[in-house]
Structures are given as structure tokens and as C-alpha cells.
Design goal:
heterotrimer, B: about 350 residues, mainly alpha, ABC transporter involved in vitamin B12 uptake, BtuC, two-stranded antiparallel ribbon, C: about 350 residues, alpha/beta, Rossmann fold, 12 strands, globular
């Protein structure tokens, strides 16, 4: 498997009027590896996504795609380069079937001339196959409505859809944020499967545990700047959370059981 | 779990329970009941049986009566089908009623006042319909204002224009026209009381169903109504979809305007003003979801049939005609409950 | 499948809807006696008449309805009142007539509001062997349809007489207010008014009240008032039903209090009669719709039984009520509400 990074950020910054959303960020996305982008809300994660998906362009620094300097001016260019994003809201339509959801925007057709029709049978087949590859066995009918699927299964659909239609880079924006423990575990397993198939995954999250469980590389953002970059095994969960702002208190709470600083009796008594 | 939860694309709040494996018949029935038109189908059958039994003595089941309510329901169906499809895409068109009136005046002025070929009047009306739909669609898509407001404004604009033009040219709000020839036979023809509107409605039903179920444009319609931003993210040209559907809904109104004007040999600006209410009611009774993303053309037809049966059936029961509205209102509520319940069935975990 | 609290909520909803439906059905059962009155054993027992006319929400029609119902009681026959919807005139004119035919009555009495649409249906009924008598509307074309007679007034001629009378009273520019736009008969009435006014040397204009406003008193009053303000030459108003007459009086009082405006209406009401007495209205023109209702049923019944009916048009109007005959009229209106006009 090639280890040349598909995406490389070199000293990338993004300034909005008066705000430094991202400052001097450098990292790479390598096929077959999960890179976790960690940070609290407002740390700059969504700006990074926007630059990757072509909604914004960097104000400083360079972005390289397959080693070549590139600037995406719109989302279509990013998609054409093989960058797919699955947003927090997953982007599936609960009142439409699994098959229809899967092929939305790229529907397979059959027939010819004025009688071109959607090949629903094929759509269902592809959808079920891709989801099975990701380990989802419970969904057996391509016609069932996506609303009947669990959160994890819907993520599988969205992720399967992205990889089937040629994603080389999969950007996952907070995929476990709205899910419970069991569903989150399903999604983490999905991420591993996708990684194993050779896709470069950018896993954006504020959940240190989930990151720790799946990540190969870690980039921690705080107020737009990269405060840490390390590989799997270099840090513990507690250390990871400490690196995210506000994490110090929580980490201490979890690891030592000492009372929080705010609860210490004030000197005035 | 409410519809809102489903719309928000969040996982269901209830943990999946272990249920016994459903039998094949069970799942067949389940999937049938989960179809958007299931509620409408049940409603129309129940309503028809009711009126057939209670209204039989008054003549409801005679051929004459059937021809009457069926032709009427078909006209409502011609409005409700494209309106329903637009609602599936997540938008409303409150201007349909005034498009019927404007069409009526146009055809009547051309045919009755100026004594020219009805086809000219029909052609002009069709152009007006396309323009109205285009304007509605472009404004909604560009300004992102709710279609409810935009089409409401269009309704008032069109109503004012119609009466202005009609008064200016003819000095009247109602113009008689006595068409002859092919146009009359095609649009106002009838066979034993069964109007050609029934044929038009049938054809429209087939076209709309094939489009929704079998084409990728249909897939786009459901997606646009289900969640427009998701659809756009997936590359669906939602703006184009909506504009085309607004045009479709206006053209449906034009067709009904032509049919009725040639049938009554009379054009009037107030023709069809009821359709803004009855069209949406028919779609809703037939299972079209008000928030978009779910529904079917056949459902809209079931809704139109239901409305047609009730609005004429009450006469055969000798009821006070004002009770029609009370009955329809309660029926709408019952139908909406039924449809919501059946939708829950469709999205329930197997 | 659903948790119990949600299931209970839905069940409650169904019970409520079922209750609602049951109440509707009960109401319907009780009121069906009103729309079609009971028959007692009589000389004409067993005869069923379908009367297709206007809605009771339009103040013109209640006296006609009362007349028809009284005839039904006196003669011991069943009369079913089938009203059109004035917001949807053309379509409901057709559907009510089709319903009347399909209910296979012994005879139909019909007001043909849209003759181009209804006359073919009258022909169809006659072809099927159902005799048809035309009442109040449709006087210009009934003969060719095969109907056996017409009762009412010559609307256009009455309009002409009314217009002439208003002009003779001093009105130079008369406004004719059409409250049901799209009703061809009302348009013809105003044409008649125009002719009458012009014959006395005056001018006439027409105001079409938008359909959306026509059931809203405040709106109609405002619409008329606005017209009076913007057309200061108007010194006469002719309204086509009693309610609009009262709106016209209010409008004149608020929008043009210093102008001497002569107001007259077609069809009367208790308030209208008081207004004639007090001078606010110059006169009211009555078609005596109670007679249309009563005699319409009577003639239909006798035609069914014996084949006898008056030949041609029977005139029930126009009766002009002004200061010269108001007193006696007022007494009848007081003693018998709902007969002369709506109360």
C-alpha cells in the first residue's frame, strides 16, 4: 500500500475578518490510516473541513493533493479529487429507501432514449453489498426505509456510499457525537473497516476516547493552532484529553479523583 | 418518536427490542400498509361504502350519480396530482385557484368575446401557466422565502390582474363562450355523463407515478422534499426540480380551467378558487406529508376521490349541505392521524 | 411496537375523531329533516321534488327556502333543497343539477344561475322524463330547454325600472354593486340598471366586489366606501341583495356623509324595510322570492299529478316598496318573519 499522502497541509492558515480560525497547520492524510483531528468546539475543526471540501480556500500556506499544489474553488472539485465528507447529520433521508439513498445523485440507469429508468434493483444490490462489506448484517431489504435503520447503520450507508463512489479521502465530521455507546462502537468498527480497504480517513471528534480507540495519527487543535501531533500509542487517553482545552479539569477528575479547582474553598472562607 | 425526530435523521430514541420473527404474510401486509397511499386507499373505500349504503335510497349508487362525482373528483385530481408532487418536493402552491380563474377568463375572452379559435385561448392560457409557475419557482429558489408566502402573493396578484384585464376588455367578470369543434370534444366531451376529465386524470396519474417511482428525477423529488441540504450535498439540482414542479402545478390548474370553461360554456374569474383548499386537502388525505419527502400520486387521487364522494354524497343523504364542510374537516383530521400512524408502522423496526 | 404512553395518546386521538364523526352523523340525521321536510298523508303524498337554488348564507334565498318548505308541509310532499356554492358557481351549478337528476325526483325546480352550463342539464332531465320548472334565474333561455315554465321576474327589466326610478329620484351617476362576481345574471341586472338610468339622462358604473371579500361585511363596506371616495360624482347606489344594501348605507355615511346618495336594493330584509321607512333607502325591489319557493313547488306538484301548469312566465316581481306602501309591508314583516325577506 502506497504511503504517499493523498492530502498534505503545509503551514496552512485561514483568517476571517478579525478571527484566526486556523494558524500554521501542517499534517498529512495517508491511505490506509485514520487521522484523528481533535479539539473542542471553536478550535478550528470545521474550518479545516471547509478547506478540504472546497468551501473555503486557505489564506496562507499550501495544500497538496497527490503531491501537487492545489486549490479547491468549489465542492465539486474536491469531490472530483476523491474527497468525500460525511457530516454529523449523516445526510441520509429517513423516508426514502436504503437503495434510493445509496445512489442519490448518481442513480444507475437502464433502458435507452426517452425510456431511461432508474435501476432500483441494482441500486438495492449495491447498497446492501457495500453495507455488508462494512459489517452490517441486519439490513437485508434494499427497499426498507432508512428511518428503520439504527444510527450506526445509517453511518454505514453514508460511508459505504462515499467509498463506493470513489472516495480516497473520507472526512467524518463528529460521526459519534449523537450516538450512544453501542452505536458508537459500531461506527468505530466501520471506520476501521474503511481504513483497511485503503481509504485515508480524517476522523474529526471531540471525544478523546473514540479517537484513542481508532486513530493511527492524532492532530490536536486548540484555538486554531496545532498544539500536538503524535501517533498511536504515544499518549494515553487522559493525556489526550488534557491537550484539548478544558480537558485538564476533566482529566484530573478521571485520573486522580481530586476535587476540581473550582470546588476548593476560597481563601476568604 | 415524533415525525420531527424522524426528519432530524437522528437514531430512534427507543432501543430495538427483540421481536419474534415476522411471518411472510405479516411483512407483506406491513409493507403494503407502509406505502404512502395506504391511508388514502382505506379512507376512500370506507367513505364510498358508507355513502353507498346510506345514500343508496337517495340515488348515490346510480350511474348518473357516479358519473357526476367521478368527473368532479377527476377535476380535483388533475389539480391534486401535480400539487401533491410539488408538496412531496417540500413546497406549496397557493396560486392554483387563481390560475384556474385566469385561464377561464383568457379562454372565454378569446373564444366568446373575440370569437376566435379556442385553441388560441388554450395556448395563451398555457403560456400564462408556465410563466406563473416559472415566477413562483424562481422567486422561491432565489429568495429562499417560504413558498406559502410567495404563492399567496402570486395568488393575489393574479386575482387582481384577472379582474382588471377582464373588466378592461369586456367590462364583466363573467363571460359566456360557446365553443364548438375539436376543443370542446376533447376537453368538455362526455360519455354518458362521464367527462373526459377522468381520462386526463388517469393519464396524469400514470405519468406522475412513473416519474416518481421509476425515474431519477423522481428520486430527486423525494430527496429535495426529504432534506434539501442533504440532497444538494449529494449533487441533486434542487432548484431545477422545484421550478419544474411549480410549472407542473400551474399547468394542472390551466388544464382544469380549460376543461371547466369549455364544459360550462362560461368563463369567470372566480372559477376554481376553491381548489387552493381542496387540492391540498386531497393531497393530505391521500398521504402526502405536509413537510415533504413522502407521498404518492395515487394517494392524491384517492384523496380527490374521497373529497368528491363526500362533497356530492351529502346531497343524496338529504343532509344540510353545510355539513359537508364539517364532515370534510373531521375527515381530514382522521385521515392525517391514520396516515401518521401508518407511517410509524413503515418506519418501525422489524 | 410503540411504548404504551404513545399508544394511549393515539387511541385517544382515534376516540376523539370517532366521536366527532358520530356527532356529525347525529347532527346530520337531525337536520336532514330541515333540508327535506316530512310528509304527512295527503292528496299529493308520495311526490318528491328536488329544488336546486342558492345557499341560505346569501340573504336573498331564505324567503324562497321558507316558501318551498311551507309548500312542502301544506301539500304533504317531500322537497329536497339543494343549494349551490356561490364561491364556486359554475361547478356547483352543474353538480347540484346532476345530483338532482340522479336522485330521480318526480320533478325538479331549478334556478339556472349559469344558463350555458345548466340549460343542457335541464334538457337532459327532460329527456329522462323528469319535468323541470325554472325559478328565479334563467328567464332568458328556459323555453328552449324543454322546461315547462318559469316563475320569477324579468331581472333585466326590473333592473331597468329600478335604474329609471333612481334617476328620476335625482341620481345622476349610479353605481351598481355586484357582490357575487362571476354570476352572469347579476351582470345582466346591472346592465338593465344602466339602461334605466341612461333613459333618464344619467350614467351608470359597476363595482365588482372581489370574491374573497364578498362574505365579509367590513370588507364590502370598505370597498364601497373607497369607491365612493374616489368617484365623487356617484350619487346613487344599487345593491343586489339586502345585506349589501345595508353595507352601502354604512359606506355612504362614513365615506361621503355630505353627499346626497340615493340608495336602493334588490330584495328586502327587516332592516331594509326600516331603512325605507327612515328614508335611508329610496326603495327596495322585491321579487317576492317566497312566492318563487311556494308556487314553484306547487306548480311542480300539480304538473306531476295532473299535467297542469301555468303557461309561460309567471311574474312574481318586481314589487317596488317605497315610502308610499311601506307601512302595510312593515306590518306583514313583523307578523311573519322570513316571508318577505330575511330578518
Amino acid at each position: 500500500m502506497s504511503t504517499q499522502p493523498i492530502i498534505e497541509f503545509r503551514n496552512v492558515s485561514k483568517h476571517y475578518s478579525g478571527v484566526d480560525a486556523v494558524v500554521g497547520l501542517s499534517f498529512s492524510l495517508v491511505p490506509g490510516e485514520v487521522t484523528c483531528l481533535l479539539g473542542e468546539n471553536g478550535a478550528g475543526k470545521s474550518t479545516v473541513i471547509k478547506m478540504l471540501t472546497g468551501l473555503e480556500t486557505p489564506t496562507d500556506g499550501t495544500m497538496l493533493v497527490d503531491g501537487r499544489e492545489t486549490q479547491f474553488t468549489n465542492p465539486r472539485e474536491a469531490r472530483a479529487a476523491g474527497i468525500s465528507t460525511v457530516y454529523q447529520e449523516v445526510g441520509t433521508l429517513p423516508l426514502m429507501s436504503v437503495g434510493r439513498n445509496f445512489v442519490l445523485g448518481a442513480e444507475p440507469m437502464r433502458g435507452f432514449g426517452p425510456f431511461k429508468f432508474m435501476d432500483i434493483a441494482k441500486a438495492n444490490r449495491i447498497a446492501l453489498e457495500e453495507m455488508r462489506k462494512l459489517g452490517i448484517a441486519r439490513v437485508t431489504d434494499g427497499n426498507q426505509l432508512v428511518g428503520t435503520l439504527s444510527g450506526g447503520e445509517r453511518q454505514a450507508l453514508a460511508i459505504g456510499r462515499a467509498t463506493y463512489f470513489g472516495a480516497r479521502v473520507l472526512v467524518l465530521d463528529e460521526p459519534t457525537a449523537a450516538l450512544g455507546l453501542r452505536e458508537s462502537a459500531t461506527v468505530l468498527r466501520l471506520i476501521e473497516k474503511v481504513r483497511d480497504s485503503g481509504v485515508a480517513v480524517l476522523f474529526i471528534t471531540h471525544n478523546g476516547y473514540h479517537a484513542h480507540a481508532t486513530g493511527d495519527n492524532f492532530v490536536v487543535l486548540r484555538r486554531g493552532a496545532n498544539v500536538a501531533q503524535f501517533s498511536r500509542g504515544d499518549r494515553t487517553v487522559g493525556e489526550i484529553m488534557e491537550l484539548m482545552s478544558g480537558g485538564e479539569e476533566l482529566a484530573r477528575l478521571l485520573t486522580s479523583g481530586e476535587p476540581l479547582a473550582a470546588e476548593q474553598p476560597s481563601p476568604q472562607g | 418518536m415524533t415525525n420531527a425526530d424522524l426528519m432530524a435523521d437522528k437514531p430512534p430514541a427507543v432501543a430495538p427490542r427483540a421481536t419474534p420473527a415476522p411471518t411472510r404474510l405479516n411483512s407483506r401486509i406491513r409493507s403494503l400498509l407502509g406505502r404512502p397511499e395506504a391511508g388514502g386507499a382505506i379512507t376512500v373505500v370506507v367513505i364510498y361504502v358508507f355513502f353507498a349504503i346510506v345514500g343508496q335510497e337517495g340515488g348515490f349508487t346510480t350511474l348518473d350519480a357516479t358519473a357526476s362525482w367521478l368527473s368532479n373528483a377527476a377535476e380535483l385530481g388533475i389539480i391534486a396530482i401535480p400539487l401533491g408532487v410539488l408538496m412531496i418536493a417540500g413546497e406549496f402552491d397557493l396560486s392554483v385557484g387563481t390560475v384556474v380563474g385566469a385561464t377561464s377568463i383568457t379562454v372565454a375572452i378569446v373564444t366568446g368575446y373575440f370569437d376566435m379559435s379556442p385553441w388560441l385561448g388554450i395556448g395563451i392560457a398555457a403560456v400564462i401557466g408556465v410563466l406563473v409557475g416559472l415566477v413562483n419557482g424562481v422567486i422561491v429558489v432565489r429568495t429562499k422565502l417560504p413558498s406559502f408566502i410567495v404563492t399567496l402573493a402570486m395568488m393575489l396578484i393574479l386575482a387582481g390582474l384577472a379582474i382588471f384585464v377582464s373588466s378592461s376588455i369586456t367590462g364583466a367578470a363573467s363571460i359566456s363562450a360557446a365553443p364548438t369543434g375539436a376543443a370542446k370534444d376533447i376537453f368538455a366531451g362526455e360519455w354518458n355523463g362521464f367527462g373526459t376529465s377522468i381520462v386526463f386524470c388517469g393519464v396524469l396519474l400514470v405519468i406522475a407515478t412513473v416519474m416518481l417511482q421509476k425515474t431519477r428525477f423522481g428520486n430527486w423529488i423525494y430527496a429535495t422534499g426529504g432534506n434539501e441540504s442533504t440532497a444538494r450535498m449529494m449533487g441533486v439540482p434542487t432548484a431545477r426540480v422545484k421550478i419544474l414542479l411549480f410549472i407542473g402545478s400551474s399547468l394542472g390548474a390551466v388544464l382544469v380551467g380549460v376543461i371547466q370553461t369549455l364544459t360550462f360554456s362560461n368563463g369567470s374569474i372566480s372559477l376554481g378558487s376553491q381548489y387552493v383548499f381542496t387540492g391540498i386537502a386531497a393531497a393530505v388525505i391521500g398521504g402526502v406529508l405536509l413537510t415533504g419527502g413522502f407521498g404518492s400520486a395515487i394517494g392524491a387521487v384517492f384523496g380527490a376521490l374521497t373529497y368528491g364522494i363526500v362533497s356530492l354524497g351529502v346531497f343524496y343523504l338529504g343532509w344540510d349541505a353545510n355539513l359537508t364542510q364539517l364532515f370534510i374537516g373531521i375527515l381530514i383530521l382522521v385521515a392525517v392521524f391514520l396516515n401518521a400512524r401508518l407511517r410509524r408502522l413503515a418506519v418501525g423496526r422489524s | 411496537m410503540l411504548d404504551t404512553s404513545r399508544r394511549r395518546g393515539l387511541t385517544g386521538a382515534y376516540i376523539a375523531s370517532a366521536a366527532g364523526l358520530a356527532i356529525t352523523l347525529a347532527l346530520a340525521g337531525c337536520t336532514s329533516g330541515g333540508a327535506a321536510s316530512t310528509k304527512k298523508e295527503s292528496y299529493y303524498s308520495g311526490i318528491e321534488i328536488a329544488y336546486v337554488s342558492g345557499p341560505l348564507s346569501d340573504s336573498f334565498f331564505p324567503p324562497m327556502y321558507n316558501g318551498a318548505m311551507q309548500a312542502s308541509e301544506d301539500l304533504g310532499v317531500k322537497v329536497t333543497w339543494i343549494p349551490i356554492d356561490e364561491a364556486d358557481i359554475e361547478r356547483t351549478s352543474v353538480t347540484t343539477m346532476e345530483t338532482a337528476i340522479a336522485s330521480k325526483p318526480d320533478a325538479i325546480v331549478v334556478g339556472s344561475f349559469v344558463p350555458s352550463a345548466v340549460d343542457p342539464l335541464i334538457e337532459k332531465a327532460v329527456d329522462q322524463g323528469i319535468p323541470v320548472y325554472v325559478s328565479q334565474s334563467g328567464q332568458s333561455s328556459w323555453e328552449s330547454t324543454g322546461a315547462f315554465g318559469f316563475i320569477g321576474q324579468d331581472g333585466v327589466a326590473s333592473g331597468t325600472q329600478a335604474g329609471a326610478k333612481l334617476a328620476a329620484n335625482g341620481a345622476k351617476a349610479v353605481l351598481c354593486v355586484i357582490n357575487v362576481p362571476g354570476n352572469p345574471y347579476l351582470a345582466q341586472l346591472c346592465d338593465g340598471v344602466a339602461e334605466g338610468v341612461q333613459s333618464e339622462g344619467g350614467t351608470s358604473e359597476v363595482l365588482n366586489i372581489p370574491t374573497a371579500d364578498s362574505t365579509d361585511p367590513t370588507k364590502v363596506t370598505a370597498d364601497i366606501g373607497a369607491y365612493l371616495k374616489t368617484h365623487p360624482n356617484i350619487d346613487g347606489v344599487f345593491a343586489l341583495n339586502a345585506a349589501v344594501g345595508t353595507y352601502a348605507i354604512s359606506a355612504a355615511e362614513s365615506a361621503a356623509p355630505d353627499r346626497d346618495i340615493h340608495i336602493a336594493t334588490l330584495a328586502l330584509s327587516a332592516v331594509g324595510l326600516d331603512d325605507v321607512k327612515s328614508g335611508k333607502l329610496d326603495f327596495v325591489v322585491s321579487e317576492q322570492p317566497y312566492l318563487d319557493g311556494y308556487l314553484g313547488v306547487l306548480f311542480a306538484v300539480q304538473y306531476v299529478k295532473f299535467g297542469l301548469a301555468p303557461i309561460g312566465q309567471v311574474n312574481t316581481g318586481p314589487l317596488f316598496i317605497d315610502k308610499t306602501n311601506i307601512e302595510s309591508i312593515l306590518k306583514i314583516a313583523a307578523d311573519y318573519p322570513g316571508v318577505l325577506g330575511s330578518s
